[in-house]
Each structure stands twice: as C-alpha cells, then as structure tokens.
Amino acid sequence: MNQSFDIAVVGATGTVGETLVQILEERDFPVGNLHLLASSESAGHSVPFRGKNVRVREVDEFDFSKVQIVFFAAGPAVTLSFAPRASAAQCTVIDLSGALPSAQAPNVVPEANAQVLAGLQKPVQLSSPSASATSLAVVLAPLVGLLDLQRVNLTASLAVSSQGREAVTELARQTAELLNVRPLEPRFFDRQMAFNLLAQVGTPDAQGHTLLEKRLVRELREVLGQPLLKISVTCVQAPVFFGDSYSVTLQSGRAIDLAAVNAALESAPGVELVEAGDYPTAVGDAVGQDVVYVGRVRTGVDDPAELNLWLTSDNVRKGAALNAVQLAELLIKDLL
User: Fold this and answer.
1) Closest by CA position to 325, among listed 5, 98, 88
2) Global pTM?
3) Are residues 41 and 168 in the same domain?
4) Over the stretch 254-311, which tens digit does the pLDDT of each residue have?
5) Domain that includes residue 97, residue range
C-alpha cells in the first residue's frame, strides 16, 4: 500500500497506548506522521517508534485536522471530551474506553462481526470492546450457530493491568513488601492484592453488578449479534500483572458435538486450541501473543448440552491494542 495515514494516539503513555504504538510498528501499519497525546502530567515523555523517540504532547492543544485516524486509549472522560472534536475534523475515531454509545460507534471484533464496517458512514466512529468482550467474542463467534447457544456463564479472572499502570505498580509493591516481611499498606486497591483474589473489579451498583460486568454483557451481545442472549458474569481481580483467564460454560439448545466444536475452534481465526490433556496459562502462553488460547474443552458432567471451556489471552495486547489496530487495518483497506 503506497498511501500513508497520519495517526494520533490519545493516552500514549498508558499500558494500552504504548502497546498500540508498538503494534503499529510491528505490523508495518502505513503511518505517515505519528502524534502521541496525553494529559499535561504525561506530556514531555517519549515513546519509541521506528527507531526514534516520539515526544508526547498535550491532547488539549492538539489540532485533530492534522490526522486521519485517532485512537482513544485513555479513559471515558477523555474520549467524551475530545472525540467530538476529532469527528468534527473528519477524523476516523477508534475508541477503546467504552464511552461512546454503540449506535454512534459500534463495537467491532474483526474475527466476529467485521461485516458491520460495510454500513458505516464517514467520519467513521468505532468502538473496540473491553478486553474481556474481545477475547470471548473471538472464541464464541464460531460456536454460536453450531451450538444453538442459549446461555453463557463465565468467571473472568482479570489481570491488574486492566486497571492501568498504577495497579501494576501497586501489585509489584505489595508483593515486595510481603516477601520482605514488611507491613502491608494497600494504596490503589482497598485491601491486599498480592497473593490474593478480590471478588469484584470496581464498585457494584444497587443490584451488585459492577460497571465492567455490565459493559461485558452489553458488548458481547452486540458483537455476537445476540441481543437476547442470557449472560451471567463475575469479574474477579487476580494477582497477575498481564493476561486474563476465563472459565466459561455454554448452554446449548441441543446435545454438544464435541468433535465439531474442536474442529470449529481449530479453524477459527485468532484462536489457538490446546491439545486435549493440556491447558494454557496467562503467564506461560498468552502474554505477548496475538491469539486467544482455549483448553479444557469438555461437555458437562451430567448435561450433554453443556460445554465448558478455559480461555486465556493477553488483555493489553490481544484484548485491547491489537483489536484496535486490526480495525484500522480493515478501515484503510475498504473505507478510507
């Protein structure tokens, strides 16, 4: 491709933003000028790109008419503040925060619902779903019709990097304090995170559900094209730096053909099926990789219409940054 595109990354000093820049380089995305943007606190830092250090500037002062594509890899408030400016400048917006309504910026996972892109109008606005919804959609999309899917029950064990660099630093600090037999003083988390599991990620509402859990249900239904699908989810904070893991139970409307399930997963893009008798882990397999690993594929103990799976993926890379870059790749190929 001879054409190049000027790109802006908002939130360039965060874990997802930095990884996004890295993936743009790794996949040889046709970047013309790269503009790295962040808050005033992070402005002045540098991020490496193609052998050079690109200086990070304040997003408040940026003229979005200078670029064709903007990735928003910061929080929802940042997207809500600056995405309208970017769209008014005729920029393509790819948001990773979940701030934009799906009617305005549909959630898309290329392996699951890339057909959505065909109906978009310029300036394009897209949402890259939460890391959990992205990873689950990659695996569930090839199984929806095959299983006559009725219900999804899942427990998501999330790495602390899902809450940003500060959470990663906090887990490292707590671990060091405990290993050195020093008193533990929780800061970012409200209690001990190291060597522990926390039963919720975020603050629950009056019904006991967290914002992340509700977002996951909403996005997964949308990406799978199953608005009435029953989904039960519990998000757990695990003492892991990077890499999410999921215990998933799918309820089918008919008896499971396990051979057909394995064949579908084996051929599905973005999926790595681990051979029977083995299982993948976040640290040993998923971190740094571009696929979702699947293992422990089995029917229910006493229900032939139940399918159980174990999934793990790199939440920052596969679940967030790579999906956003893949969306941009599809857009420049067909729409821009």
Assistant:
1) 5
2) 0.94
3) no
4) 999 999 999 999 999 999 999 988 999 999 999 999 999 999 999 999 999 999 999 9
5) 5-129+320-334
